[in-house]
Amino acid sequence: MAKKGNLFFLIKSLSKAEKRYFKVFANAGRSDANYIRLFDFIDSQDAADDTAIRNHFKGEAFIRQLHVAKIYLTDMLMKALRNYYSDDTVDAMLLDMLKDIGILFRKELYDLCETRIDKAVALAARYEKNALHLEALAWKRKLLKARRTNNNAGSGDILRQEEIVLRKLDEIRASWHDMEHIFEKANDSSFPRKLKKNKPLSLQAASLRHHMLYIYFFMNGRTDRAAEEITELIDLMERQAHRIEDDPASYVTALSNKISILFNGRHWKDIEELVGAMREVPSRYRLGDNRFTVRLWLRIFNLELELYRDTRQIGKGLQLTNEVEEFFQAHRHAIPQDYHIMISYQVASMYFMDGNFSKSLKWVNSIINENFEETRVDLQCYARFLNLILHFELDNILVLRYAVDSCRRFMKKKRNNSEAAQKLLWLFSRLSLSDPGDYKDIFRKWTEDRELLRFGEEFKDYLDVNEWVNGRIR
Fold it and tell me: What is the reported pTM?
């Protein structure tokens, strides 16, 4: 039984180009116009609501069996999306080739069928699509038998190719098994040696091996060796550029992992160069404007903002915030909650460092005024503390009193009752209830109390309370 709202979420996930293509596809297939009307109405809804659909189409025959109409519309949408993405991935191209092979085989057009099989085998081998490679080889054997030729050499060649593919599959399966248990290998000093015992048969297995060694060395505090492994992985991928076009996510993940190591070592120049390389990925590997590209740009923005914040390059950071704001407006429905929170907080921090408290407050409000539930609760907490600082800086003392209570309720709800959080709430509660002439003494008490300074250090990575307090005293 289909879950309520599935069609609604499917329609809401579509890009403008996908919606436009669906309507062209539906009209070309001379589909009942009612289904396009149903599509348009669901697209206009803010939430899945079958009652609203029935009321809107009240009295029309097709609405009597709404569940049937929704199933039919879902099938139409999926058929249109299959067509839309038929040449978008190697997997889709291979699946279409295998359909062609089946049709040509049934029509006994064996020469055309053989040409298609050879293309499918070559494409599957080039991109290591092992399961589809086996399927194409099975058709090759079937064609050989259909032609009733006693070609033992041909049969033997198919068997040898299948054996190689099966060995690759088994190696990849074993690699994934090791990956699933990688955290158990942290204390096994022989693990790197065992892993390097045999030369990998495929790029997938080689990539997994480098990734496992990166994790292993990172867990053991060997960041130098971890960096070596992730660099080798990136070099390996870049030598197979066509594979990055097919699977850009693995390449981007490798770049991000190397940047994380560089952040730990504070290698700012290397980070800038690597982030610059990430900026070139969409155009260099022809990724197009899709959901992955949107997430990639969000990841880039987050890394750049973190870099500029840590290195105090406020000018570059503010310049980037303009690009971020335009991107958020253009892709507001495609931005995942975690990235919305992370980047909004980074931008708010950048404006705060620049002393533009009003703009900082605008971005903080974009976090605290939304219900993000359990997504990045840590940053939701930091945003509320930054909100307290901003209201104090803007002299919104009455608002600050309310904000302290609101922050306390939020912390309690999210079970964040750490001593550091409680001490920070104490600071702003005192400030909100004191005369301006007493502010300096309150701040000095914070700086003279080692315990309070220690609590302030707990927030330093995301909100340097101690630095702000010292700045207020100065």
Answer: 0.77
DSSP state of 151: -
179: nearest Cα among 222, 210, 202? 210
In the chain, pLDDT over 70 holds for what percent of residues? Answer: 97
- How many Cβ atoms are within 10 Å of 35's Cβ, its own excluded? 17
Structure tokens at 393: 């800086």
Instruction: Give the residue from 359, 367, 321, 369 showing the smallest Cα distance to 342.
Output: 367
3-state helix, strand, coil in the chain (%, to 5): 80, 0, 20
- Cα 259–Cα 262–Cα 266 angle in degrees, nearest 5: 135
Mean pLDDT in the chain? 89
Q: For the beta carbon of residue 314, count every other beta carbon within 10 angstroms.
A: 15
Query: Are the beta carbons of 203 and 240 closer than 8 angstroms?
Result: yes
**Residue 117 tokens, joined:** 């099989």
The pair of three-digit structure tokens given for residue 42, joined into one six-digit string: 């669901």
Contact 242, 89 (CB under 8 A): no
Alpha carbons 224 and 27: distance in angstroms, whole number: 59
Helices (H), 331-396: 337-354, 357-368, 377-393
Residues 363, 369, 371, 374, Cα dihedral to 10°: 50
Q: What is the pLDDT of residues 236-294, one digit of tens each?
A: 999 998 999 888 999 999 999 999 999 988 999 999 999 999 999 998 888 877 788 89
pLDDT of residue 1: 38
Q: What percent of the chain has pLDDT over 90?
A: 58
- pLDDT tens, position by position, 292-304: 889 999 999 999 9
For the record, the structure tokens of 194 come out as 């065992």
Is 97:123 a contact under the CB 8 Å cutoff? yes
* Chain center to CA of 27: 34
